[in-house]
Amino acid sequence: MGAEQEVECVEDKRPIPPDDDELAAIDIVSPSEEVEKAKERRLLWKLDAVILPMTVLLYLSANLDRGNIGNARLQGLQKELLDNKDERYSVVLLSFYITYMLGSIPGTLLSKAIPPNYAIGSGCLIWYSFRAVAASAMAGVRSYAGIIVCRLFIGLGESIFGQAVVLHYSLWYKKDEIATRLALFIGAGVLAGAFGGLIAFGVSHIQSSIETWRILFLIEGIPSIVLGICVILFLPGRPDRSWLLTEEQKALQFRRLRSQNLDEGDDGIDWNGVKRAFTDWKAYVVTFIYSCMQLTLSSLSGFFPTIIKSLGYTNTQAQLFTVPPYAVAFGIMALLNSASDRVRIRGLFIMGAFTINAVGWLILLTVVHNLHVRYFACFCIVTGGYCTIPLIQSWVANNTGSQSQRAVQLGFLNSLANWAALTSPFIFPSKDNPRWPLGFGMNLAFSFAAILTAAFMTVWYRMENQRRDRNEGGPPLSGSKVEQAKLHDLAPGFRYTP
Fold first, then answer.
1. pLDDT tens digits for 70-126?
2. What angle do CA 315, 420, 88 make, to 5 degrees?
3. How far apart are CA 153 and CA 134, in angstroms?
4. Domains along the chain with CATH numbers
5. How far from chain centre, in Å, is Cα 253?
6. Separation of alpha carbons 68 and 301, rounded Å
7. CA 298 to chain centre
8. Which terminus of the chain is more exposed, N or C, with fewer CB under 10 A?
9. Are 59 and 186 contacting, i.e. CB atoms less than 8 angstroms apart?
10. How far apart are CA 165 and CA 111, in angstroms?
């Protein structure tokens, strides 16, 4: 914690208040608080109407491509291409995470190096084209090696935009707005689980000379290219130069961010911010919490239909019964993250979500013959697993001072945190069906570890905020200038979201 204590050496520790010109501009543009709030509501509606649909559809498509492997397994993929060997299926799952992890930090930094709309749009067009080709090519592969190559491309494609979208949201939304929007973004992944089950159920009834799992890959892979083109054409970039906003709305957006002591930062990569991201111990602790979620998410992606089938359903029925848990998880996630935004708290909600997750894995581990209780546990693991994603992403976005620091630490969530996901392909062997003590037990242990770690970070953030209040003579004034571009989260006036 020595780095944080360096701030105490700054002689003037109070944040710099707005100068006279800025105050005058605010007074001229905002003649009354009520008018300002009405304009802000209209601005938010405008942002949501343009930014959310495109990013949500991108994540929906991404998770359809990622998760269809689990449904394809039940439709004959493992038998026809993998000689019915569990270890081969595990390697196919693993291959996705190799390129996904390697590309995450460079992909997120790309949105800082160039305007984010170009980075996300170009990345989506280029890599989503590869992903669409790869996912579609999986319908035509005839070898074990071929399907591995396809999965590598799919992982590379998703790495380029996943956390970059979170960074993009942080440029447009205030701290107490971002979790609600991220819940909709990540909720697309939850809906993908539901839609994927419905699509797989429908495809399983197709009578064709082509194997149904090949048809599944074709249906879910092709739309990605169209989405990439739409992102390039219509996704707005930075607020200060966006085609979306009028000059008055740009000024209002600036005041919105300044009201929470947010610094817009500069274009390009600030390598001092990159260095701060890599040397900040908090980044690795929060990344560990995210890795606990990644174990659940990767377990669901590769094995959830198989877990549902173990309750006594046929292959076709299992795909259909994966839908209700995802639908329930979507509703709970929206409510939980909206509440987190309202009270400006992340840690306690993260602990609550992991508790739901732990209850589900505990039931699956200890209850074998009561199928109704086990199916209830499936609702818990999906709900708890997915609810934590936007909460942790918001935590990182809120608690990083500069955009370059934020880009790297968001990249950590996909690169460093996915080490846990690398184990999931090997912890659900068919011989352990339906108990799977290793898979259920590891997920339970990681959920408990996440609860304890989140509790520690919540306490630390609160204590650090109190220390800064004492050293700086009180909380920062609303609208104060905070030198986050230079000092990042160490800047006087910066406060963490607990």
1. 666 666 666 666 667 777 777 877 888 888 888 888 888 888 887 777 777 666 665
2. 45
3. 6
4. 30-490 (1.20.1250.20)
5. 24
6. 8
7. 13
8. N
9. yes
10. 9
